[in-house]
Design goal:
Layout lengths: L1 E5 L4 H10 L3 E5 L9 H10 L5 E6 L4 H10 L4 E4 L5 H9 L3 E7 L3 H7 L8 E5 L8 H5 L7 E3 L7 H5 L5 E4 L4 E2 L2 E2 L1 H11 L11
Parallel strand pairs: 1-2, 1-8, 2-3, 3-4, 4-5, 5-6, 6-7, 7-8
Antiparallel strand pairs: 9-10
Helix pairs in contact: 1-8
The structure holds ligand LARABZUK.
The site of the ligand O=C(O)c1ccccc1NCC(=O)[C@H](O)[C@H](O)COP(=O)(O)O has 20 residues, from β2 and β8.
Keywords: Amino-acid biosynthesis, Aromatic amino acid biosynthesis, Isomerase, Tryptophan biosynthesis
Enzyme class: isomerase
Pathway: Amino-acid biosynthesis; L-tryptophan biosynthesis; L-tryptophan from chorismate: step 3/5
Length: 204
């Protein structure tokens, strides 16, 4: 089971992760209250335990910015949230990066279009668009491919997402209190997942 804690932006967030050891941590370079600047990201990534994979999250950014940040920080994974071309994704792969293609799912058409990334991306992430009241669990039940699931996961409701039998879970706001990562919530998520063998990236 892959566990990604996303929106890591403070030194203490990395310290929490070094104790709890999720599979991946996500740093957001897109426009977001959780956005980190490159120099901050460099410092945070230098602190991280080497067993934890780094993910850079990008949305609506030009290709040269995605590439230069990813190269400078030697990211393990690039998570793409826009309508990037297949050629660009293939190019990033040729540069040695692993790709998480995020599809923000609002309806069944979005589930269908996710399939085009099956053989290109290392992982498909089915996510709920921010601020939209979409039943991501109901929609993801129709996916006949492997996926990581995200969108509203909390320590209280994670079992409902695990019932989808996903490759992994991606959590951000559900492990925060007042907008900051909360060690106890992160710990509860990890405890609930211990049965599912959190750890090595499979298929990666
Ligand atoms: O989280 C953000 O602020 C964000 C902004 C722009 C693009 C992507 C963003 N997050 C991507 C993630 O991987 C989140 O972990 C995922 O959307 C789940 O978030 P949440 O529903 O808060 O657990």
């Amino acid at each position: 089971m892959i566990v990604k804690f996303c929106g890591i932006r403070r030194e203490e967030d990395v310290e929490y992760c070094n104790i709890l050891r999720p599979t991946m941590i996500g740093l957001i370079f897109a426009n977001s209250p959780r956005k980190v600047e490159k120099d901050v990201a460099k410092r945070l990534l230098a602190m991280k335990n080497p067993s934890i994979k780094s993910v850079g999250v990008f949305k609506n950014q030009n290709y040269s910015e995605v590439l230069s940040i990813s190269k400078d920080l030697q990211l393990d994974f690039i998570q793409l949230h826009s309508s990037e071309s297949i050629e660009f994704i293939t190019y990033l792969k040729s540069q040695g990066f692993k790709i998480i293609k995020a599809v923000e799912v609002e309806n069944m058409d979005d589930i269908e279009r996710s399939k085009i990334y099956k053989d290109i991306a290392d992982f498909i992430l089915l996510d709920r668009p921010k601020g939209k009241d979409v039943d991501i669990i109901k929609l993801a039940k129709n996916a006949d491919f492997d996926f990581i699931i995200a969108g509203g996961i909390t320590p209280e409701n994670i079992e409902k997402y695990l019932a989808l039998n996903p490759l992994g879970v991606d959590v951000s706001s559900g492990i925060e209190t007042n907008g900051f990562k909360d060690f106890n919530k992160m710990k509860t998520i990890m405890e609930k997942l211990t049965k599912c063998k959190v750890g090595e990236v499979k298929n990666g």
